[in-house]
Every structure is written in structure tokens, then in C-alpha cells.
Amino acid sequence: MSTSRACGMLMAASALLPAGVACRPAPDEGPAVQVLTPAVPTRLDPYRDPRFACENVFLNVFEPLVDTDSEDRLVPALAESWGNPEPNVYVFRLREGVRFHDGAPLGPQAVVEAFGRARREGHFVAGGLADVLAIEVRDARTLAFRTARPMPDLVFALANVAVTRPGPDPVRQVGTGPYEVEEFDPGESVRLRRFERYRGARPFVREASFRRFADLAAARRMLSAEPLTLVLDPPRGLVDDARGRPDLEVARQPGTTLVYLAFDLRPGSTRNRPLRDRRVRAAVHVALDREALVAAAAPLGSGAPVSQLVPPGVFGFDPDRPPVTRDLPRARALLAAAGYAAGFEVQLDTSLSYEPVAATLASQLAEVGLRVRVNPMPSDDFVALIEGGSDFYMYGWVSGLESAKSLRSFLHSKDAASGRGLRNRTGYSDPEVDALLEAAVGAPSSHERLPLLRRATDRLMHDLPWVPLFVPDTARIHPRALGIRIHSDGLLRLADCWPRRPSSPTPGAGR
């Protein structure tokens, strides 16, 4: 599609609307856009792929019972209403007339079956449902969640669990969202088309093709081939290119991902022996210049250095905790006390997107004698590696608005039967942390939850199964002809796009 044709389509549609108002095009109207992303799902299954980049595909295809709006307030989604008639019972009333993309109607039994799949061992969303004892069908549009104890934040937890239906093959689930899947090349591309029987307003964007870019050169080629292109998590070179083009703009917002280091602490493991010593992990913690790590972060080189496990803006963050400053003499002393005064060699596994940060981190640790070999990998390979066990790796964590359940999923002792610690890849286990996180999750009010959560994070920061690094700002490139409402989570909702009129000429311009 040529630039003039694409802009003409947008301008023709926008001429009928006030600026910034979404239109309701006929079935064949609206633009097709290309979305470049560093990762595309290998399975269209929102229960099995935890990668943040893949959520940009999932949330356009699948919907939860309840959702959050751009200001993080709970809003109806597949459930039109909900209530808490008993301390341990939460009742949801489904919308009428909702259909899956394959035409099957949405009913309570379909929701029960979807949550049964979500709670299977190995599915990363299962940890948030660990306290749900049963889901009961009440009538043709009503179902009830029965929990082990009062859970005032259950509704927020359900906002992170999509309702799906088994698809035509093992790697595809079917959703009810504003877009349905037209084509799928696992790990490489997925083409979405507007679902014309969607229950809500018809989106302006007719079609979106999500395509994975492997590196800067590939991203440049793909961006130049299609003018109506959005780029998610663009590499820094592409951001620089976009700033020089009048048809593109770079949107920036504070990030929600905590970048951290993690260690193999599995009981009985003989690997990674030096880093199993808490003093060595403490040495790593104080040897780092977090401001320099932020500067190395792609794509914007900006963000917030963090030296606690709960990032700013998330419930559980402690503004009174003093930041950790770089202290090389202390780091060397800790290494000497652990018996590693001469340092040692270690491999740091990471995804390609974090390679610049990992290289900077390796150079910093070299100053205290740690010889770090950076092992950058494609996203799919990296996730498979750390699920199987990595000695030492760098990754990112998105906690959501409240950190207690997320921390329980990642750092509670792993217990598949109860659903605790399902995403604990380090093997870390501490009974005191387990008890504090359980108490925090079950606390009936935020006033009671906060001190428990901070005691748990104090203990975790002493043990250091993770070393927190920073929260990078996020960037997105998009065409100026397309208006996009940006949510606080930084995810792309295609239904929140609209045609944007060109800016009026500045008086006197061009003279």
C-alpha cells in the first residue's frame, strides 16, 4: 500500500468525525496495518506463553471476564456484573449473546472449561488461581467462584486470565475478542482480522499483521516496505530513524517491567557453585552501576534504577528503602570472604533484546574479578532454557498493580499441587518467605497486606534469589496518521486506534 493511498484512506474516514473519535466502518473499510515485534507467539494460547511482547497479540484475540481501563479501573468484559454475596464466594453474570470466533456461544460451562485449562500444571496463569477451590454454574448466564478464603483482589486476578475455547489444532485457542486469527506462522507472524460479530463497537483498523523482526536490519527492511507500520519495543537504531521521518512518531512512557538477575538455587544442584553463596550474590548486587545499565537499555536509554524487588508504582514498593549505590571495595570484600578473591568465570544467559545491557553489566562485574560471558539468545530459545534451568540469567518481570500474588508465583517454594511457586525458575525456597507471602495474599485489606509484603521483600532482599536492576521506559513507533490510546501497561489494543487528521499548517509556514 502506498503512503498516499494509506493516508488518503485515513483522511477520508477522519473527515466525517471530530478529531480523536473512533469511527464505525463498514465490514470492508478501514486500514490494514503491520505491527513489528521482537516476539510472536509459538502457540496461540494465552495460558502458556508468559512473554510480555506476545500479550500484544493475545489481548486483541482473547478477553477476560473483567478488564481494566486506561486508568487501571475494573470494567466489565465478558461478565457484565459481579458480586461477593458470601466471604468466599464471587458471582459473575455473563453478557448475553457473546460468541467465540468459531461461532460457538459463550456460556458458564465454556468459562468453567477454560479455567480448567488455565489451571493446569505448567500454565503460567495458574498461580493466580491457586486459592480458587471450585467454579460452579448457577444458571444459563451465571457462575460462581468458591475460594479457600476471602480474596478481595480476586476480580483483579481474573482480569489477567483470558477465556478461550479449543481451536482447530493443538497450537491454537479461539477467543471472543475484537480480532480473530486469519493466518498463523508460529514464532514468525500472525495476521488478525476484525471480528465482524464482535459484541462491542467495530474497530477502525480492519486488519493487523504481527511480524517478528530478528534484528535492526530486518526491522528497517520491514518498516520501509509498509507505511502503516507500528513497531513495538523497537531497537535504538530504529528509534533514531523514526525521529528523522515526518510520517512517524515515537511514543514514550514509563515502563512496567522490572529487569533483574536470577540464579540457580535449586536444592542439591552442583552447578553454579559460586553464585549459590549469598555473599557472592550480595557482591554482584553492590558492584553494579544501575544508572549506566539504564543508559544501555534499548531503545531509549532511559528508565528508573531499582534496588528492591517491587518497582515504583506497584503496591508493595517501599519509598523509604534507601537505594543501593555502587561499592566496589565492599563487593571485593564479600567475594574474598566467600573464597573468591580472584573471581571466577560464569555465563550470563539473556534474550537478544537485553544484549546491550548484559554487555554493560559484564564490564561492570569484571571490575571485581567476575569474568562474565554473555550468551544472547532468541526469545523462544531463551525462555525454553530458563524453564529447564539456567545458572545465571537476566530477564524481565511484569508484576501488575499488586505484587503479592506475582511474588508468590515466582519466589514461593514450588508446589505444583497447591499452585504456589509455579513460575519459580530459581529453585529458591524459604519457609519464612512462604508464610509471609501467603499471609499477604490472604490479608483482607491493603492496610494489613502492606507490612507483610514488605517483611517478605526484606527477607528476599537479604537472600537475593533475584538482584533487581531497573525499570526501562518503553517506546513505540507508529504512523502519525493513526491515533492510538496508550494504556498504562504499554500494550497495544488495536480497538483503541482511530484516524487522525494531519496538523493544521502553522501560520506563515513555508514562506
The computed structural class is alpha+beta
Shape: globular
Can you summarize the main beta sheet? 7 strands, mixed
Q: Strand order, biggest sheet?
A: 12-13-14-1-15-23-16
Low-confidence stretches: 1-24, 504-511
Radius of gyration: 24 Å
Query: Could you estimate the helical fraction of the residues in percent?
Result: 25-40%
Draw up the topology in text:
Blueprint: H1 3-14, E1 32-37, H2 52-61, E2 63-64, E3 66-68, E4 74-76, E5 79-86, E6 89-94, H3 108-118, E7 132-139, E8 142-147, H4 154-158, E9 162-163, E10 165-166, E11 173-174, E12 179-185, E13 189-194, E14 207-212, H5 216-225, E15 229-232, H6 236-243, E16 248-253, E17 257-263, H7 278-287, H8 290-296, E18 303-305, H9 328-337, E19 344-351, H10 355-366, E20 370-377, H11 379-388, E21 392-398, H12 404-411, H13 431-442, H14 446-463, E22 466-472, E23 474-479, E24 482-484, E25 497-499
Parallel strand pairs: 1-14, 1-15, 19-20
Antiparallel strand pairs: 2-9, 3-4, 5-6, 6-8, 7-8, 10-11, 12-13, 13-14, 15-23, 16-23, 17-21, 17-22, 18-22, 24-25
